[in-house]
């Protein structure tokens, strides 16, 4: 009795329906992160032009902004991390209020006493300890009272490294890059679900002819009467087919050039649980198929049948067979030519 009609196509759809859950889940997590954390303002910082907009942005959790400053003056204080200077603290007057700004060492040119104008990204934070320290130092320099000066210094501290430093850029690249990758994979998986003929298992058949025609032939042979069948591997008159939770693969039997099995011992500490076997199939045009977690009996039956169906198949793993396959596939030819050329030069 044969397998149900269009079994391979349905298996491809089922496989990618399960695979698409991963990208969709990750996209949902990114959306939650966008809502909970200020990712929106990090990627698209608001442009501010006065102090009131700074306070408004902080209240609305838009803590990343792009601002234009006038004259900035070095306070004499630096930020350290592991003994290395990571920032220089400056102050500037903005709308009659004094703001403390932490600048990157490169931006500040390693603590330039005066910077005349700056347009940069900053992160709005509350750093009470550094604010108090800077107020005390400025009061000492200007011979003012710290309490009187405190009322004219904003409670908000602006940090350039937190908004424009390598950590912020790395976070943005990771967020945008991973989001783009997840969206792309979700689109591809939905495409494979809608059009299984475009999926990688079927597209690989294009090396041997028209993929759509070969898929239809494999479906027909599998639905009529497979020659040999295990839990997830099938052999028809012209095809080897694998349909498992790990993926789908099919290859014409006359295009197989090497088959062998590999055993894996499963154990926990000193206790041996079981041995599983993986079937390795190498086809023409560098097509490689791995069928893991099978029994020795099933794999031996598959190998025996395939070797009888195609007498040119190399059976078993050996250095001799590996070299023969390299020659058949043309692998390593370029490297051998380079080595021969270099040997002659030497």
Overview of the molecule:
This protein is 44% helix and 32% strand. It is α+β, with helices and mostly antiparallel strands and 346 residues long. It has a five-stranded mixed β-barrel with strand order 2-3-4-6-5. Strands 7-8-9-10 form a four-stranded antiparallel sheet, with helices on both faces. Strands 13-12-11-14 form a four-stranded mixed sheet, covered by helices on one side. A hairpin with a 2-residue loop joins strand 3 (84-94) and strand 4. It is elongated.
Overview features:
four-stranded antiparallel beta sheet, 13 helices, 346 residues, alpha+beta
Summed up, what is this model?
This protein is an alpha+beta fold and 346 residues long. Helices cover 44% and strands 32% of the residues.
Mean pLDDT across all amino acids: 87
Q: Using DSSP, what is the number of strands?
A: 14
Overall body shape: elongated
Catalogue the unreliable spans. none
Helix content: 40-55%
**Helix/strand/pairing class, anyone?**
alpha+beta
Range of strand content: 25-35%
Strands side by side in the biggest sheet: 2-3-4-6-5
Give Rg in angstroms.
33 Å
> What composes the largest sheet?
5 strands, mixed, barrel
- Through-space gap between termini: 66 Å
| Total number of helices | 13
Order of helices and strands: HHHEHEEEEHHEHHHHEEEEEEEHEHH
């Amino acid at each position: 009795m044969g397998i149900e009609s269009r079994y391979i196509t349905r298996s491809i759809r089922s496989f990618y329906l399960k695979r698409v859950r991963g990208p969709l889940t990750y996209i949902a997590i990114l959306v939650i992160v966008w809502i909970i954390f200020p990712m929106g303002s990090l990627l698209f910082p608001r442009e501010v032009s006065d102090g009131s907009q700074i306070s408004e942005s902080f209240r609305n959790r838009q803590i990343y902004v792009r601002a234009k400053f006038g004259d900035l003056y070095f306070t004499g204080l630096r930020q350290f991390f592991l003994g290395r200077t990571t920032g220089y603290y400056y102050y500037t007057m903005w709308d009659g209020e004094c703001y403390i700004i932490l600048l990157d060492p490169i931006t500040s040119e390693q603590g330039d006493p005066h910077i005349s104008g700056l347009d940069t990204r900053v992160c709005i934070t509350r750093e009470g300890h550094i604010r108090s320290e800077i107020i005390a130092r400025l009061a000492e320099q200007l011979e003012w009272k710290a309490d009187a000066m405190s009322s004219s210094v904003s409670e908000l501290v602006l940090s350039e490294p937190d908004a424009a430093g390598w950590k912020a850029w790395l976070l943005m690249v990771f967020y945008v890059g991973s989001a783009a990758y997840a969206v792309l994979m979700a689109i591809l998986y939905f495409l494979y679900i809608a059009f299984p003929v475009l999926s990688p298992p079927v597209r690989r058949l294009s090396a041997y002819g028209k993929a759509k025609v070969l898929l239809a032939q494999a479906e027909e042979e599998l639905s009529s009467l497979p020659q040999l069948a295990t839990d997830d591997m099938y052999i028809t008159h012209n095809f080897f087919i694998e349909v498992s939770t790990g993926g789908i693969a099919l290859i014409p039997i006359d295009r197989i050039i090497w088959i062998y099995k590999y055993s894996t011992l499963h154990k926990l500490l000193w206790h041996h649980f079981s041995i599983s076997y993986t079937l390795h199939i190498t086809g023409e045009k560098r097509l490689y198929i791995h069928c893991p977690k099978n029994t020795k009996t099933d794999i031996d039956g598959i190998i025996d049948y395939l070797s009888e169906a195609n007498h040119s198949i190399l059976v078993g793993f050996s250095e001799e067979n590996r070299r023969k396959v390299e020659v058949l596939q043309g692998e390593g030819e370029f490297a051998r030519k380079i080595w021969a050329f270099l040997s002659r030069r030497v």
